[in-house]
Amino acid sequence: MKVAYEVVKARRDQIAQLLAEHQYLPLAEVCARLGISEATARRDLTALERDHAITRTYGGAVGDYNRRFDSFRERLAQSADAKRRIAHAALDLIKPRMVVYLDGGTTVHAVADALATGGPRPLTVVTNNLMVAERLSDIEGIELNVLAGQYLRRQAVILGAKTQTSAKLWRYDLALFGAEAMTARGLWNTQADVVAVERTVAKSTKSTVFLVDASKLGASAPVFLLSWTDIDKLMTDASTDVLSHAGIVLPNRSLVTC
Amino acid sequence: MKVAYEVVKARRDQIAQLLAEHQYLPLAEVCARLGISEATARRDLTALERDHAITRTYGGAVGDYNRRFDSFRERLAQSADAKRRIAHAALDLIKPRMVVYLDGGTTVHAVADALATGGPRPLTVVTNNLMVAERLSDIEGIELNVLAGQYLRRQAVILGAKTQTSAKLWRYDLALFGAEAMTARGLWNTQADVVAVERTVAKSTKSTVFLVDASKLGASAPVFLLSWTDIDKLMTDASTDVLSHAGIVLPNRSLVTC
DNA sequence: ATTTATATGATTGACTTCGATCATATAAAT
DNA sequence: ATTTATATGATCGAAGTCAATCATATAAAT
């Protein structure tokens, strides 16, 4: 029997809501909860998928509500192995009771990943990256703080003038940064606001460490960040040979290759 | 054939990673991507589910990586209808170019929901609630800012001394708050640090508005927040009769019932 | 009031997935 | 070197899911 359009819409909204809450629901569950037949449930799910509200699966559907950070995640996959190795080396720098700043990039996110599964405790972690925040929140022994500022969902990062102001509220023992490019002159990044925050943090940290995988060698990025003399350590999977060939020569204690 | 345990573990980690990226993958896709048989894929998925890394579905699996804010979502469902009505009434208070503060509770989240689908633009929104932040980020005409501070994932909220400091970085035209209880004396909340932030914001806003559904009438909460004379408006679904019966009497222009 | 359009639920056959079982290959233990 | 343990892939019957089709009831249009 035909039914008022509003009734249909309300029901589909309810299904979308249900899926936002439960992430996944089998078809039978949808039928049971709404008291509708398989056929109607199927039709509703198909319609909702057409409107990009959910994703159908064989036997049910998943909600799209939480599909954020997608572009960030894609970048996470690049050079994932090198990033993981660098991150594990970086763990050695972190000691219990430190206040550690974790930068917004994907390489530094690997450190958060490593920290989540174990490492020195207790720790105070400060970050402007919300994926890092998610990863490390509610972990025993880690107090997680975020900076203030404008939230940019695509990059999962908090930026802006207020971010710099709030970055000054802490004193860091160690700051772990990423960068988009490294050349003989130093380290570069793509966004001016990102660099602004990084420089602000660099001024109030005891130790400044950069984690940069080899793919960033010879890459180019428009905004100059810091020169080699400004940093305490570079951790990379690029070999000393390749680095010096690119004109990057650092004292032994400032370079960790892995 | 038996295979080194590390190989198995690495493969399962890879599947979990893949699911974190794609949220949902059908079994056949897992087989294809890893070059393994259905049987092995099934066994891997079962093992991963046992470790609470993923959730199995009929025909595939979904990643658990993003299942956050769950307890907050549950509270969202309570009195959902009243919250929605109150939120829609609150929309009228918001005018283009305002700087609006949105509090951490579930009632205020309904305002974010309403704002997301339409309303006055442009707006500057400031919040300490990350689910509100998610909801309103990347929306044309809305600049979304978050406060600094310690991130408490269960409540999806940012709190602490630094939160108060960063709350003072803005001047608000309008602040929308929730509360856990209302009595003749005024409004109450459960957590001292939540109240601390709310009071800080209340001091730097032109207009202080509370959105409280009827279920909070007669409820009790330990921390006193503000008395009725301190606020500019109360929006509630409780009737004037019921309110006055509870000893709450407000001037007409300060009370919106819906 | 009559007609038209369509939302729903039931049915059916084709297709897919599942769990159990088994043979086999290889890592780990002895 | 030999034995033991187990990870893997193949197979198969059972159970579940899907898309298509159809009759029907009711909203919307006339």
Would you give an account of this structure?
The structure is a homodimer of 258-residue chains. Chain A has a seven-stranded parallel sheet with strand order 6-5-4-9-12-14-15, with helices on both faces. In chain A, helix 4 (70-77) crosses helix 6. The first copy, chain A, folds into two domains: 5-63, Winged helix-like DNA-binding domain superfamily/Winged helix DNA-binding domain (Arc Repressor Mutant, subunit A, Orthogonal Bundle), CATH 1.10.10; 71-257, Rossmann fold. The first copy, chain A, has 258 residues and is of the alpha/beta class. Chain A starts with a helix and ends with a strand. In chain A, 40% of the residues lie in helices and 22% in strands. At the A-B interface, helix 4, helix 7, strand 6, strand 7 and helix 8 of A face helix 1, helix 4, helix 7, strand 6 and strand 7 of B. Chain A binds a DNA duplex (30 and 30 nucleotides) through residues 1-5, 7-8, 27-28, 36-40, 42-43, 58-59.
